[in-house]
Structure to design on (664 residues):
């Protein structure tokens, strides 16, 4: 007989091992789904997870997709650590892209070293502004941040749609829903000739280092941890709850906004309807899979980025629907949450000594 | 100007029709939340219901199988959520989000073969009475059975929660799982049942969209209605009758969009489309500002896991 017993305290080793278990279980379940759909499971998994990153170009694409995921997830981990459920990063990304794109369009005929920094800054500010809405409504009007931040995603996409169809559309663009191309000075430099990976990756890496420092070396990091653990304790300790809530939302919004800048000034080079294939939502999974730890998030963003590439490759080579990517993403989170059970409980065989 | 009363009746009827999926999903979620469980997977369960209903209708040709199949699909997908949150004690918010992402992905995957297929006509009731009473006839008659069910549901739900013993148990579990458990109530079982019931209603809401409201399958066709349904539960302060009012307001916003465009009002279409989302935010702010009232009406254990040592 097997008995389930509650652990005295959560196991730290298992805390970092369960993400790997979750990925493994996702692969097994994914293979099963492929089998049910009538594909050869191992071949499908190979096309999904190995073929896309087997060459130099593929690896560059992996980093290209992992960059926004990592950046946003780092921002989200500030919110999630302190018990703030910002799930509207997609909207903050979009609004960041709108503001920075607008600034980039002002300079469309100009070149100059000063343009890119202004564009990047504009994106961060755009993301922060947009994230401040749920933050302020939560702190001063007691409004649920989950629903507000989510609703704002739809609103931001409609604003973008309005702009690229209407006032910002390219006058020489034959009514395509897109703006002018940005000038070269408003584009993030490419790192290698012929590959799409761009300097935005340094923004993500900087975010990793800075967030690690804030989490583990500052008073703010400590406050966030306590608030995440118990809001009552935080109140008792006299933390200024409201200020912290707004701060974590602003950080999170800035990161999402920067991810938006990376997309439009990196691979896209203009504004059009779809600046992000739901990076803002997928980054939620990345944040959890990375255990809200900066280094964990790097690995998680690489793993989840594969699901984007794999979905494209598998669609081209095996006609597997591209939505399989989302199915995998959902499953990773399911299995991760499920395997958290092992953190708090252990299996005991009856008869064995305590 | 002469206003045709039947035209007014038709507009009201179309507002009611667009309120149906919101009422169904909100009433389902309301029961789930009353038992203390916050399921953010409404959007995911609705979209699964939408594709299941449409696919079953196309494949089997039977509307009855399709409607019940969609509800069953909602139940099945919510079982994942129930197992994770109740048996494995996972975080409600994260699990609900996973459910939505998973649901949208899997529905698009299944739906790939059903894009562009025309839907079937869904039978309506009391069609012969449609021209009898001015103004009221278009509102009262000539709708699908799901429509009538949806408008009865808030009253049934209210009666269930207030007057029946099981309703009392659900509320007890949501307000104080510890004392309910001490009274010998199986908290986990009650919550499982409430989650699955919510799944069934969201499945039905989705099927209404793909089989009756706009009879076809379009990817992501729920378009945020699941999230609006969640907001409606807060708006209603967990009172089913108020869901009816909220759903009518949002139905009205959706319908106004079409009419404004039709009569050529020069407002960007994107602004009109954004209106329901913006109004949701405003309404949430107005409702939530009174934190005392919210605290009194929110099920006390909402979103908190309950674990009992055996």
């Amino acid at each position: 007989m097997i008995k389930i017993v509650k652990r005295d305290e959560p196991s730290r080793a298992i805390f970092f091992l369960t993400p790997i278990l979750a990925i493994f279980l996702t692969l097994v379940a994914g293979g099963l789904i492929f089998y049910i759909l009538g594909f050869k499971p191992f071949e499908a998994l190979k096309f999904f997870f190995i073929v896309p990153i087997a060459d130099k170009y593929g690896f560059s694409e992996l980093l290209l997709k992992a960059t926004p995921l990592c950046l946003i997830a780092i921002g989200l981990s500030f919110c999630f650590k302190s018990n703030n459920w910002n799930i509207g990063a997609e909207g903050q990304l979009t609004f960041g892209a709108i503001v920075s794109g607008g600034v980039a369009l002002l300079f469309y005929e100009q070149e100059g070293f000063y343009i890119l920094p202004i564009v990047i800054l504009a994106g961060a500010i755009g993301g922060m502004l947009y994230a401040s809405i749920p933050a302020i409504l939560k702190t001063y009007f007691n409004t649920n941040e989950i629903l507000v931040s989510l609703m704002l995603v739809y609103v931001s996409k409609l604003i973008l749609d309005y702009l690229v169809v209407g006032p910002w559309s390219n006058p020489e663009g034959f009514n395509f829903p897109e703006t002018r191309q940005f000038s070269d000075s408003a584009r993030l430099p490419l790192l290698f000739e012929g590959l799409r990976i761009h300097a935005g990756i340094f923004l993500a890496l900087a975010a990793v280092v800075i967030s690690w420092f804030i989490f583990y070396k500052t008073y703010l990091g400590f406050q966030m941890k306590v608030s995440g653990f118990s809001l009552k304790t935080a109140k008792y300790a006299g933390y200024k709850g409201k200020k912290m809530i707004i701060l974590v939302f602003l950080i999170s919004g800035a990161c999402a906004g920067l991810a938006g800048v990376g997309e439009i000034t990196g691979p896209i080079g203009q504004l059009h309807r779809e600046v992000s294939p739901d990076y803002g939502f997928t980054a939620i999974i990345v944040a959890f899979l990375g255990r809200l730890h900066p280094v964990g998030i790097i690995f998680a963003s690489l793993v989840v980025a594969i699901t984007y590439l794999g979905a494209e490759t598998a669609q081209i080579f095996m006609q597997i629907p591209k939505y399989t990517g989302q199915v995998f993403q959902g499953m990773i989170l399911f299995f991760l949450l499920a395997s958290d059970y092992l953190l708090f409980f252990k299996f005991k065989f009856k008869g064995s000594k305590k | 100007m002469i206003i045709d009363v039947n035209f007014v009746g038709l507009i009201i009827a179309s507002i009611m029709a667009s309120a149906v999926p919101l009422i169904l999903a909100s009433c389902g979620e309301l029961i789930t939340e009353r038992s203390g469980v916050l399921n953010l997977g409404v959007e995911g369960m609705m979209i699964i219901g939408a594709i299941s209903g449409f696919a079953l209708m196309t494949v089997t040709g039977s509307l009855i199988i399709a409607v019940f199949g969609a509800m069953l699909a909602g139940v099945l997908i919510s079982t994942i959520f129930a197992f994770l949150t109740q048996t494995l004690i996972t975080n409600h918010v994260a699990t609900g989000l996973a459910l939505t992402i998973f649901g949208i992905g899997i529905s698009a995957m299944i739906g790939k073969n059903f894009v562009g297929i025309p839907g079937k006509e869904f039978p309506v009731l009391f069609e012969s009475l449609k021209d009898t009473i001015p103004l009221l006839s278009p509102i009262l008659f000539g709708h699908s059975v799901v429509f009538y069910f949806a408008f009865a549901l808030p009253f049934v739900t209210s009666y269930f929660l207030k007057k029946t013993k099981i309703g009392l148990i659900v509320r007890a579990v949501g307000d104080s799982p510890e004392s309910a458990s001490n009274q010998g109530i199986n908290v986990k079982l009650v919550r499982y049942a409430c989650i699955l019931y919510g799944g069934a209603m969201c499945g039905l809401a989705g099927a209404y969209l793909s089989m009756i409201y706009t009879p076809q399958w379009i990817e992501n066709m729920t378009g945020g209605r699941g999230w609006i349904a969640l907001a409606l539960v807060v708006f209603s302060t967990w009172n089913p009758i108020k869901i009816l009012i909220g759903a009518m307001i949002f139905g009205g916003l959706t319908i106004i969009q079409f009419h404004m465009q039709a009569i050529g009002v020069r407002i960007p279409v994107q602004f009109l489309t954004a209106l329901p989302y913006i109004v949701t935010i405003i309404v949430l702010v107005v409702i939530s500002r009174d934190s005392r009232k919210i605290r009194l009406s929110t099920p006390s254990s909402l979103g908190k896991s309950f674990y009992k040592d055996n």
Summary: Chain B touches chain A through 43 residues (CB under 8 Å). Chain B has a mean pLDDT of 91.
